Amino acid sequence: MTTEPKSVTASVAIASSGLPLTERQEARRRRILHATAQLAGRGGFDAVQMREVAESSSVALGTLYRYFPSKIHLLVATMQDQLQHLHETLRKRPPTEEEPAARVAQTLMRAFRAMQREPHLADAMVRALTFADRSVSAEVDAASRLTTTIILDAMGLTVPPTPAQLSAVRVIEHTWHSALITWLSGRASIAQVKIDIETVCRLIDLTSTATGPTAPGTPDATAGVAGGGRAKSGRTATSRTKPGRAKRR
User: pLDDT, tens digit, for every residue of 114-123?
Assistant: First the structure.
């Protein structure tokens, strides 16, 4: 196994600097990610070694570390790159189902089948996400935001999502990730994954029936829970008993 330099944590990643990449830097980054995907596709997580990635992408090892400080950073970025390709494909060929829940389930199963075609690559990327610590939070958050965008696009919303819908999307993301892990470990079949995805996507139907902000003068449907039991007339439940007249037993 190739030994990685211990000084990589002190290096500054170009991709995390916040500055836009030049055309040459972007081309170099594309070569690195392509080489990573090829190595992982052939041998999984253990096959991705920084020195081999540098050689395959024709960059110096020090240059590679300036783009990606560790193997985990590199594989999480590869996951984000694969999701970006999926997003572009879905925009060209969007899901065909009519209901939002069915469209999201169809979209996630398309993503799953894409990973199914390259199980070693899928395993490497999912393991990297599992091993990622706080130092990789920016890359993990970027991949998560892209997954959220893919799901929201599949839902076909014409207005911004409600907090309930965003919560449902987070649960769907967690379930999808868990389904990938159980399938990759051989503990779930494709059919079981499909059932789990379709089941969790039904949360979208539940949240779509929730009402948004109420108009002025309209009773708030949630006030019964959060507003201390307010009745439709606008009076509280306790205001129905007149002062000084206790209820007879």
Answer: 999 999 999 9
Instruction: Output the CA angle 141-147-152, nearest 5 degrees.
Output: 125
Q: Whole-prediction pTM value?
A: 0.74
Q: What is the DSSP string of the chain?
A: -PPPPGGGGGSPPSTTSSSPPPHHHHHHHHHHHHHHHHHHHHH-GGG--HHHHHHHTT--HHHHHHH-SSHHHHHHHHHHHHHHHHHHHHHHS----SSHHHHHHHHHHHHHHHHHTSHHHHHHHHHHHHH--GGGHHHHHHHHHHHHHHHHHHHT-SSPPPHHHHHHHHHHHHHHHHHHHHHHTTSS-HHHHHHHHHHHHTHHHHHHTS--SPPTTSPPTTHHHHSSSB-TTSSBGGGGSPTT-PPP-
Could you tell me if 117 and 128 are in contact, meaning their C-beta atoms sit under 8 angstroms apart?
A: no
Please say whether the beta carbons of 140 and 129 come within 8 A. Answer: yes
Return d(Cα 171, Cα 168) in angstroms, integer: 5
51-92, pLDDT tens digit by residue?
Answer: 999 999 999 999 999 999 999 999 999 999 999 999 999 999
